[in-house]
Amino acid sequence: MSLVDFSVFSETDRLRQVIVHTPGAEMDLVSPLDREALLFEDILFLSHARKEHALMCSIFQKMVGESGTVFQITSLLQEAFRQEDARFSFVEQIVEASPEANLKAFEKDLKQLSPNELYDFALTGRSPLALEAKPLPNLMFMRDLAAVVGNHMVLSHAATSARSRESVIINVVASYHPAFEAHRDHIIKLPPGVTFEGGDLLVASSDTILIGQSERTSFGGVISVARRLLADTSIKNVIMVNLPQERSCMHLDTVFTFASPNECVVFPPLIDPSGMNNVMTFSAGNGTESLHGRIEQNLQSALESCLGRSMTFVPCGGSNRLSQQREQWTDGANLFAIAPGVVLGYERNQKTFDEMALLGYRVVTADGFLSYYQESTWEPGERIAIKLDGYELSRGRGGPRCMTMPIARVPL
Question: Which domain holds residue 405?
């Protein structure tokens, strides 16, 4: 069993360990009638979605260069469920997290399920009991379940009941899986009443993070995360971006991601260099719980001030406003940095890739990249933008960053 490590001091350091979820049986249980209640955009063709996801994982495996470093959350959950304490804790937490589902009446029966039965219930909602529960199609968006900052992991508080079971899954895995044992003291659990999802947190550097106040992360969630990280880690600056409470930009990483230490892909209508009065920076105040906040002109100037370097903002979709809107809709701004200047995005966002090419990135397909390095080891150096065939995956409204939870990166 590979041991996990918590070590993320930048969005763009070379990937070393990552948690993902390749879509499974839960995806085939989404119906047109309940997809909106499940916060899911469309009905995916599962076999094709799995192939696309496997291709993405193959890219990670090639670039990491070591076996056992791309973890599936399903395997981690199954292994955690070998312990009775983990199964009982899972049941108790979902009963508390979903009072509207009346699971309390089934608590004793749920605890009597076998590990495999409880695992199937956790993902699909199916069980031998006279109980109706919904599947978890959004589990493929692993980013939202937690965020690793430095040597700490911040667990999510899902904003909706449709995703509350996902928050319980990562809590149980982090609390009970043997591979996490050495890091139990570095797991941050937020207080009741606030919401936070990992897609709203980006690690700009060892001392600066960004958090979106969004449809899914409340202001209380931002403040709770800021206080804990300012107190317990090397973080000194927390940049908060206030986003519209809209499905189209549910997390900060749907409109802003890093491609390299000094380059970001942005959705210009919301990440506006002219200033929208929607950015604040927090730092530690004089008291234990106090914060000092200041209003920033815009996100670019706030980042440049905190990081001490100039930043290039690359427009998702190019300079045309309609193209920006179309490609943000299909996650053009949701690139995932595998190493500095090495990013993965959906092939369909061609104008965003054109912008990357203008900056000197070599644009290649995922299959082409793997074919070129089939007999050799990939080493960082060249700037590369990799196009992933994500025609099915993109219909779920989440890009490569949404589908990945990096837990360890290593500086070059």
Answer: 21-410
